[in-house]
Write a structure and sequence with these properties.
Length: about 180
């Protein structure tokens, strides 16, 4: 049985209000700069450290860049919640992960294109076995270690993840009504 390539995976195409307007293979979505949906899941271990990884060189978008989220595209007909759980489980290499908690959604527009991005968080106390086709290196970093790595500029971060990280920090700093 042959595996469908990532470029052939069918995605929902959406408008600027995040309403589905059609479907297309991922390769066409990327090549045409079509709006689609993605999920970002910040995974923390039992000590509160954040899962950080370097993407493999074979990734279609931002190969070999670092990221502080696991996640990816939302498949055609899939909800953000379904995609968050599927992507986190796949990339972390775990089964039985709790449903990631949705935090906020924003329209990313920057290097690589534009897509609706729904940020989630999840606690992962299970031993991780990151997916080798997705993750070339990984570690659990404290908030301070991650902030230092972002600030020092030595690592190339995925731009959409960096934007989600900045928005998440601002989201957490907002006073609760």
């Amino acid at each position: 049985m042959s595996r469908v390539s990532a470029a052939d995976e069918v995605l929902d195409v959406v408008d600027r209000d995040d309403r589905v307007t059609g479907r297309a293979p991922r390769g066409e979505v990327y090549a045409g700069g079509l709006l689609h949906r993605c999920v970002f899941v910040q995974a923390r271990d039992a000590r509160g450290r954040i899962f950080v990884h370097r993407r493999t060189a074979s990734k279609l978008v931002f190969p070999s860049a670092y990221d502080m989220f696991v996640g990816g595209v939302v498949g055609a007909g899939e909800s953000y919640a379904e995609a968050a759980l599927r992507e986190a489980g796949e990339e972390l290499g775990v089964a039985g992960l709790a449903q990631p908690v949705p935090l906020f959604k924003f329209l990313y527009e920057g290097p690589g294109g534009a897509w609706w991005s729904y940020v989630h968080e999840v606690r992962c106390e299970l031993p991780v076995r990151p997916q080798e086709s997705e993750v070339a290196w990984h570690a659990w970093l404290s908030e301070e270690e991650l902030a230092g790595r972002v600030a020092d500029g030595e690592w190339e971060w995925v731009p959409d993840g960096l934007e989600a990280y900045r928005r998440l920090r601002a989201h957490r700093e907002r006073p609760v009504d």
